[in-house]
Design brief:
Elements: H1 2-17, H2 22-66
Helix pairs in contact: 1-2
């Protein structure tokens, strides 16, 4: 997945270098390269983020079940 993104950014960088001025080159790189690649990577990474969050919640719930019950603080009356 990452190799395709890196390859596309390389191609877009080469396109941007051939532009006639700096503003056009930066715009080409941002709008043909960075914006689409970051959007696609975010969308394709969603299942992994969701899976990691569920695993983290399951570990927290397991730790809460295994933790000893909290003792209430006693009033010393003083």
């Amino acid at each position: 997945m990452y190799i395709v993104a890196i390859g596309w950014l390389y191609v877009v960088l080469m396109m941007a270098i051939t532009e006639t001025n700096v503003v056009a080159g930066v715009a080409t790189f941002v709008f043909y390269g960075l914006a689409p690649v970051s959007l696609v990577m975010y969308i394709l990474g969603t299942p992994g983020r969701r899976r990691r969050r569920k695993e983290q919640e399951a570990r927290a719930a397991q730790a809460a079940r295994e933790a000893p019950p909290a003792r209430p603080e006693q009033d010393t009356g003083g």
